[in-house]
Design goal:
about 270 residues, two-stranded antiparallel ribbon, 10 helices, 2 strands, about 5% strand, globular
Length: about 270
């Protein structure tokens, strides 16, 4: 696709002001659901209980956002491409299964969001994790968080500077693949860390890595940082390397294919 044609294209899934507002509110709510241990402080003599009711609202929030984003903005061609890409991502995640951090679901998400836009990227990220959970029998309380954070990965990829092209574009997407891999791991750790008890540093049993209700925010942040470094940094590094390598090797050809498909799926201003 020529630069001129690309500049006149409308995103496959337009994000209007109302949709942007809903997405922003939902993202803020999701961030609060992830960070609640660092936001709530118990009073003297009280205890800090997880806001389970608040957490149960996350699937409803996701449904509202997806419905709002698809309302009036997703025609049959875009829906078909979305379905195909979500199915491919579901199969790729089932094949890789996160072994040693090897996850193939994110590189195609990043490339697709780059071509079809931020709104499409958010929906594709959420739907890809939902499909893969059904394929791999991975449905559980962690799934809404996975869908939301994967949606953020696609959203961020779609918001990257549009004027970057050629090799610089591939380098930019590789760098984003690395950053988003660590960000995904951190957010997912944050979703489950408050519920893990008795996590200690090997060889230093007195050093507690679990969340401590009522402890100062900086202390819990320190515990969380150590927990991430000792338990999941290797997996996140594997995910980052996988993203960068897949984008570097397959990115140019996949971008060409997706942009060719976008000519038929995306409305062009004349």
């Amino acid at each position: 696709m020529s630069a001129q044609l690309r500049s006149r294209s409308v995103a496959a899934l337009p994000v209007g002001r109302r949709t942007a507002l809903v997405l922003g509110v939902a993202s803020l709510a999701g961030l609060m659901m992830l960070c609640w241990p660092l936001l709530l402080e118990p009073g003297e003599g009280s205890r800090l209980d997880p806001p389970f009711l608040f957490l149960l609202l996350l699937p409803l929030v996701l449904v509202v956002v997806l419905a709002e984003m698809s309302e009036g903005g997703m025609d049959a061609r875009v829906l078909a491409i979305l379905g195909v890409l979500a199915a491919i991502n579901g199969v790729l995640r089932g094949i890789s299964a996160g072994t040693a951090g090897l996850e193939l679901v994110f590189f195609l998400l990043i490339l697709s969001a780059r071509v079809f836009g931020a709104g499409f990227g958010f929906v594709l990220g959420a739907m890809s994790l939902f499909v893969s959970a059904l394929v791999t029998a991975g449905v559980g309380p962690w799934l809404p968080f996975q869908m939301l954070v994967a949606g953020w990965v696609g959203l961020g990829a779609g918001l990257l500077p549009k004027r970057v092209a050629g090799r610089a574009e591939i380098w930019m997407l590789c760098a984003y693949g690395v950053v988003s891999a660590f960000a995904y791991g951190i957010f997912m750790n944050l979703s489950g860390w408050p519920f893990l008890l008795g996590v200690e540093v090997p060889g230093h049993e007195q050093t507690q890595l679990s969340y401590v209700a009522g402890a100062p925010v900086l202390e819990n942040l320190h515990r969380f940082g150590a927990y991430v470094l000792l338990t999941s940094m290797g997996w996140d590094l594997g995910r980052a390397i996988t993203n960068a390598a897949a984008i570097a090797l397959l990115g140019p050809s996949i971008l060409v294919t997706l942009r060719r498909a976008s000519r038929r799926a995306v409305i062009v201003r004349r």
